[in-house]
Amino acid sequence: xxxxxxxxxxxxLVNSAIRFINSWFRQSKTITAELSNFFILPGxxxxxxxxxxxxLKGIFGQSDEYVxxxxxxxxxxxxxxxxxxxxxxxxxxxxxRAVLKDQSKIISGPFKLYFALQNGSxxxxxxxxxxxxx
Length: 134
Fold this sequence. Notes:
Elements: H1 5-26, E1 38-41, E2 45-48, H2 49-60, E3 65-80, E4 86-100, E5 103-118, E6 121-128
Antiparallel strand pairs: 1-2, 3-4, 4-5, 5-6
């Protein structure tokens, strides 16, 4: 049986996106496992992952919990630039209820997670996600 590298990369991207989204819904510290050491923002601005981690902690600290998290992945795409490098994305829609004491707020919308293939592993290099802002 012949191995299909396209399927493996697509599956890796989807699985990484799912781990990120599920960690988001749980407000889990394991979310950092999916992040690259650097992020590429519009205008070719590059920032370190520690800035993103601090931002995530600040966002998670605004709510006691997230409940009812749901998502649908609509598209996955990637381009390899040699065997060890590539760029890709996973996009879809996500929603959840942010609860703080007796108040709750529904947060939903489209998401797009941008990935770079680094040392054989897909890592997130940019985040567009409901409730997240740089």
